[in-house]
Structures are given as C-alpha cells and as structure tokens.
C-alpha cells in the first residue's frame, strides 16, 4: 500500500511518541531528561512547530505538536532526536542507535481526540506509579500549558484552533507544489492517473476533483 503524502494530512496536530532502542531507559537520569526538554524548546524556535504538550518518561517520550507543515515537523523531530542521540552516546561512551524508530505519529482530527491525547500524555507518570497527581511530575509541561490551553483552545467552550483543510485546499496545494497544469492534464493519462490515485488516498472526493480540475466524473473513474 502506498504511503499518503504526509504534508497533505487534514490536520495541524500530531501525537508523537519516541522510544528507547529495545525499550531501554534512555532518559534514566534527571540530567538526560532536562537536556531533552531543553532541546525541545530550542528546536521549537528553529522550526515552524508549536509544542503543545510533552511528557518525558524513562524509556520514552510523548509530544503533542502543532505544525501546518509536516516537513517542518519531520525536520524538528529529526533534529531533536539526532542531537539527543549524539549527546547520549558521548555521555555514556557508547555507539549505535538510541531510539527504537525514527518516531511514531498520529494525526489529531477533532476536539474530543485532542483532549483525550493531552490527558493520556499527562497521565503517563500516574499510570506508571511515579506520582499521584499530574502536577507533581517535574518532566512535563502541564503547569505551563494550562495558560496555553485557556488562551488558544477554549472560547465559549468551543474548539477553535485546529485548521482542517477542505478538499479544495488539498487539491490547490497539490497543484501549486507539483506545478500541475490543469489545462493539459487531460492529455497526459499517466500523470492524470497518478494525481487521481494520490488525491483518493487523501480522501478527496470525485465530486471535488470534478469541480476543481474540471474533469468529468466518468473520466475520473476510468483513470482512478
């Protein structure tokens, strides 16, 4: 199955998780955790990524990130984990991988899912038996994040910050970033099939393709 182009996913919010290689304790000492948190904050200034929530445990870390550009998010995570791996290997005189995978990410698409994710992240230390209250755990941004939530996510109890892209947004972004000439598209069957396939993977409807690309429904189905 082909991979959906990540820069077109219909959300700006992502739950990201990183884990130590073979589930090892890569954040075992306080100085290690503080180094990772410090570089999270430094990386936030270098890339177009807002760190909404984070919680660093001994062998893994959770982050809730806001980014309108998935490539920026990838660069943010690559820089963060590469920098920490270099620090970790040098500090403990070792070589090789530090993290189990590059990172795992899951898109957040609605208000209920957003708050469930934040609740899950902040409750990790309680579930692990480290503390009894969320605010007692030192290695998350729960306390400082309360103000962010109030300012950015709650207006008359409505969720207002998630930027959901419409089919038209996705198609127009695809056209612009791939220099697609709509007028000549119908003449190039190979390119047409490729575009239809990718737009279908992005959950764009035939109706939207028909309207924006100005191609008949029958042609879309025949080449899709």
**How many domains, as an integer?**
2
Write the element-wise H/E pattern from the N-terminal end onward. EHEEHEHHHHHHHH
Q: At the fourth CATH level, what is the homologous superfamily of the largest domain?
A: Transposase IS200-like
Q: What is the name of the CATH architecture of the largest domain?
A: 2-Layer Sandwich
Q: Summarize the amount of helix as a percent range.
A: 40-55%
Gross morphology is elongated
Q: What is the beta-strand fraction?
A: 5-15%
**Tell me about the biggest sheet?**
4 strands, antiparallel
Topology of this structure?
Blueprint: E1 13-19, H1 30-46, E2 50-56, E3 60-66, H2 70-91, E4 104-108, H3 111-122, H4 124-127, H5 142-152, H6 167-177, H7 182-185, H8 189-201, H9 206-213, H10 217-223
Antiparallel strand pairs: 1-3, 1-4, 2-3
Characterization of the model:
This protein folds into two domains: 6-152, Alpha-Beta Plaits, CATH 3.30.70; 167-223, no CATH class. Helix content is 49%, strand content 12%. The protein is built from ten helices and four strands, in the order βαββαβαααααααα. Helix 1 (30-46) packs antiparallel against helix 2 and helix 6 (167-177) packs across helix 9 (206-213). Mean pLDDT is 81; it is low at 1-8 and 154-164.
Give the tags.
2 domains; 224 residues; 49% helix; 10 helices; four-stranded antiparallel beta sheet; alpha+beta; 12% strand; Alpha-Beta Plaits; elongated
């Amino acid at each position: 199955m082909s991979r959906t182009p990540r820069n077109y996913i219909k959300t700006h919010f992502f739950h990201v998780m990183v884990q130590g290689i073979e589930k090892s304790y890569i954040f075992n000492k306080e100085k290690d955790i503080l180094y990772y948190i410090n570089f999270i904050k430094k990386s936030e200034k270098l890339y177009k990524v807002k760190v909404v929530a984070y919680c660093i445990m001994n062998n893994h870390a959770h982050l809730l990130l806001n980014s309108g550009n998935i490539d920026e998010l990838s660069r943010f995570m690559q820089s963060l984990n590469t920098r920490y791996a270099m620090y970790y290997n040098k500090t403990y005189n070792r070589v090789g991988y530090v993290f189990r995978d590059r990172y795992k990410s899951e898109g957040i698409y609605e208000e209920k899912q957003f708050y469930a994710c934040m609740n899950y992240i902040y409750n990790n230390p309680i579930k692990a038996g480290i503390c009894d209250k969320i605010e007692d755990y030192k290695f998350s941004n729960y306390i400082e994040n309360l103000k962010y939530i109030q300012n950015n996510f709650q207006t008359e109890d409505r969720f207002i910050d998630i930027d959901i892209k419409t089919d038209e947004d996705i198609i127009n972004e695809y056209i612009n970033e791939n220099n697609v000439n709509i007028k000549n598209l119908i003449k190039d069957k190979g390119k047409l099939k490729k575009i239809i396939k990718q737009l279908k993977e992005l959950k764009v409807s035939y109706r939207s393709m028909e309207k924006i690309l100005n191609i008949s429904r029958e042609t879309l189905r025949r080449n899709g």
